[in-house]
Every structure is written in C-alpha cells, then in structure tokens.
Amino acid sequence: xxxxxxxxxxxxxxxxxxxxxxxxxxxxxxxxxxxxxxxxxxxxxxxxxxxxxxxxxxxxxxxxxx
Length: 66
What we know:
The chain has 66 residues and is of the alpha+beta class.
C-alpha cells in the first residue's frame, strides 16, 4: 500500500519519501512557521505533501499506468 514517511528538519522544512510498489520519490516541503504552533506546521506539511502527490498523479499520462 502506498504511503509516505516524513521527518521534520529545521526552520519549517520537512523531508519526505513517498513509497509505493514500484519505488520511491524523495523531496522537501517548506512551511512558514511564524505565529503557528508545531501542530499547525506539521498539519500544513502533510497537506502540502498530499497535494504534491496528487499533482504528480495528475501530470502522468494515462498510458503510463501499471
């Protein structure tokens, strides 16, 4: 089952890896931290990662499906 692993770095940066049956994609998202709680920052990071995964699916040609 596809999933992602997230590790918080510094200054609102989150390293992540999207893992699926055919491999993995690694990246970083950055979240502004000013006037936000740790929980708010983490929720926003997870939202951005999910949105990025959705964008990747949207740009893949239909004939590339496994």
